[in-house]
Prior knowledge:
- The protein is an alpha/beta fold.
- The chain is built from 16 helices and 26 strands.
- Helix 2 (31-47) packs across helix 4 (62-76) and helix 11 crosses helix 16.
- The longest helix is centred in the N-terminal third of the chain and has 22 residues, at 135-156.
- The radius of gyration is 27 Å and the shape is elongated.
- The model is unreliable at 126-132 and 424-428 (pLDDT under 50).
Amino acid sequence: MAYKFNITRGNAILNFSEEFCQSRCQLIESESFAKVLEKYIKHIKRTDTTIYEYLHAVEADDVDLLKDLRDVFKLLLVMSVEEVCAMRSQLKAYFKDRDMFIALVEDVYLFWRRLQRYAIVFNETKRAGYQNVQFADAQSEFEELVLEVYRSIQSAVGKKDKVLRQITAGVNAGLAVTHMRPFLPYEYRNLDEIPFIESVVIHPPFIAYSKRNKRDGVFPEIKTNPIEDKKFDAESWLCYPAKVGDLLCFVYFNVKFMAQGVTLCNLFDLADETEYRNRKPDLIYVYGYEDGEMNQAFYQDESNDMIVALLSANDDFDYFGYMKKMCLTLHNVQKINHRELPVHGAMVKMTLRSGETKNIVVMGDSGAGKSETIEQIKVLGEAYITDLKTIYDDMGVLTLGDKGKVKTSGTEIGAFVRLDDLDAGYSFKELDRSVFMNPDKVNARIVIPITDYKDVVAKHDVDLFLYANNYDEDGEALSFFDTPEEALEVFRAGNRMAKGTTTEYGLVGSYFANPFGPVQRREQTEPILQDYFKRMFKQGVKVGQLRTRLGIKGNEHKGPKDAAMAILKYVTGDETLKELPKEE
């Protein structure tokens, strides 16, 4: 990235390798500040605010207005308003209404803070802009500098704050990146120059807004490579090398969609350079390609043993669900190719006070109540279990261990959870490490790291394999099937009451409750599905149905709580268990 600063699609990207301000004057005189101020003037002109009317009455030409404001702000760093007016009489008109000028200062500051702000530094060289400051320290210093400039100007114009709020005024996240030629087949040479992310620093609370808050449909499979022969400007792209389960996925994303790319660090473990330098990836995903189309398909590259996908840059796809679920679709198709069974579900490893452990998998499509039930087990089971470890929250896989024993492992280190279905206050407890997605809208989400990667990819036994039924009001919260055929009838149908997490509503179904691979590869998946269910019944795995009732109005919290209590009663063998009163 040769540019020092760029504003695109509501993202402000600062290249600390090219420009790093270390004094108040440097900040005001910087190219970055000029671009923010220029963007601000265009914004207030377009919205025709009272502040623009006030400024326009002083200086009609926007170019001269920009120059004047930069001069005013720089002088106010070292002078009072009276001294500025005495020294530069042509600037006196800006202070005709002192309250209006104070409102201008506040409005510029808020405009900056409303941008999604990212710092990038290149590790291979330390240029003049970055100098010798460590990256994390540099971000902290930049934040202090922005606050100092804002407060100095406020004070100079006569606004004295008695309460100071140390908010995130610098960047929301920082990325250390490197130029490294990846080990890619010849057909993908167009991706060679795109820099790789080496580390990420997030400054919570990280709140991201996208054009959409739901995902729609399934990702189709196509017969032509969607990436081959496409052109990429390396200045506009970054690669997040993600460990999706035990597979390596190169996720290339357009910097216009930085929030979606950066949020990956809370969901998929970031691969170290030693893990991909001389290794061909198993999966490649290009997110946000500007082709003016609505492409969102994947392709099996048999000659290179890879699954690849491309998604167009479009407002309809501006949602983290499109980033996450395509990565999982690619993973699942590759697993099906190796006769492993992808599971759309969550798994916990529960240690009872007796020392016994139980591994529980709860399966179901989006909104079925998997994550919500597990959160309730954590809350209700505190007195009855010594440890509860979430192995995966949304997608796992069944594999065969020694002597054909069914094992399970996961794909993600994080969870992408609906705020609406969590206990009130839960999200605030996790404020310091969560990414919040559209928190003021329907289907608001948090993305939060929950599991160590080594635990995610370990091969775990399965004790209970349950289907999350969110639509049946009648029946026991927990019940078991007697035969594989009986169980498969429910699991294969994949029914759920859609809760608006996608664009579906009402009672809907998808094959094996997994539209991310098994639906597209149903014929290939069916014999694998039957084989694993027969093995689980033969090996004594309890296969059943968990009624979360999450899709039934009025049961959004009670349903998962009852389901969690039913699981606790079953694993402890104590039917007298009840919810303990909360501590004062």
